[in-house]
């Protein structure tokens, strides 16, 4: 199984508009962060995309990705879903719509906002066949489990993917660790984890919380993502434990 981190930044990216790098060194390429999204590929070459970030077109071009097999969404916040139109090219040459999955509440909101994607319009075909994540246990050769996570006043879906004897967890946009999260995420080879900044935040995990989730879940390796402009790559890499990696756009990890 292989992880490709398409984007690793917060909702405004790094730098923010106005060339605002915050504490991040602009001369370090790994500090240039697009909005969060990942691609996971199994040994058979089947690919799962998690979230359609605002920067999805750029991310797919930068990494030479021209095919995916399934899409999962964590929630409907703009930075996680507003690149959905860029999946149109993935529909070309297919006899059916791409399968897509999300929680019941996210499915409802996505259908209202992007009805043309899921129902087709004016002779254009349906791009994605969207279903609730509770209706499946497997997709594109991956075993899939999910759990709802507190995201301030909202919720976000965390995912566990199993394939080829390996396990990967994607937990972004959460503000509290719950017993259900620990149960779902227990013992993964790799945990990709929300880590907005060092100081606590009302809707996101901070550094101590991200490290704590990795410890409580007994993750073999933790990769930090959803990093804001206070999280300089080199400074952060120098302070995290040995099994923790600072994520960056284009990071590849083979399990």
UniProtKB/TrEMBL annotation:
Record-annotated membrane-spanning stretches: none
Protein origin, superkingdom: Bacteria
Organism: Qipengyuania spongiae
Protein name per the record: MBL fold metallo-hydrolase
InterPro entries membership: Metallo-B-lactamas (IPR001279), RibonucZ/Hydroxyglut_hydro (IPR036866)
Occurrences of domain Metallo-beta-lactamase (ranges): 34-226
Lineage of the organism: Bacteria, Pseudomonadati, Pseudomonadota, Alphaproteobacteria, Sphingomonadales
PANTHER family according to UniProt: HYDROLASE C777.06C-RELATED, HYDROLASE C777.06C-RELATED-RELATED
SMART domains recorded: Lactamase_B (SM00849)
């Amino acid at each position: 199984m292989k992880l490709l981190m398409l984007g690793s930044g917060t909702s405004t990216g790094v730098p923010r508009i106005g060339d605002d790098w915050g504490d991040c060194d602009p001369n370090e390429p790994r500090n240039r962060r697009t909005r969060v999204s990942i691609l996971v590929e199994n040994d058979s070459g089947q690919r799962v995309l998690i979230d359609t970030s605002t920067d999805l077109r750029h991310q797919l071009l930068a990494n030479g990705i021209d095919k995916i097999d399934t899409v999962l969404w964590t929630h409907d916040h703009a930075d996680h879903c507003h690149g959905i139109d860029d999946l149109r090219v993935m529909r070309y040459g297919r006899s059916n719509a791409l399968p897509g999955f999300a929680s019941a509440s996210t499915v409802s909101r996505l259908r209202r906002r992007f009805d043309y994607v899921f129902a087709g319009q004016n002779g254009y075909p349906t791009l994605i066949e969207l279903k609730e994540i509770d209706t499946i246990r497997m997709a594109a050769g991956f075993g899939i489990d999910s759990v709802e996570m507190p995201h301030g006043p909202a919720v976000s879906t965390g995912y566990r993917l199993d394939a080829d004897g390996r396990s990967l967890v994607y937990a972004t946009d959460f503000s509290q660790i719950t017993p259900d999260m620990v149960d779902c995420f227990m013992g993964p080879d790799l945990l990709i984890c929300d880590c907005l900044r060092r100081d606590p935040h009302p809707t996101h995990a901070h550094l101590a919380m991200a490290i704590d989730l990795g410890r409580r879940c007994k993750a073999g390796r933790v990769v930090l993502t959803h990093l804001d402009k206070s999280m300089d790559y080199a400074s952060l890499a120098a302070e995290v434990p040995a099994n923790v990696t600072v994520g960056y756009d284009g990071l590849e990890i083979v399990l």
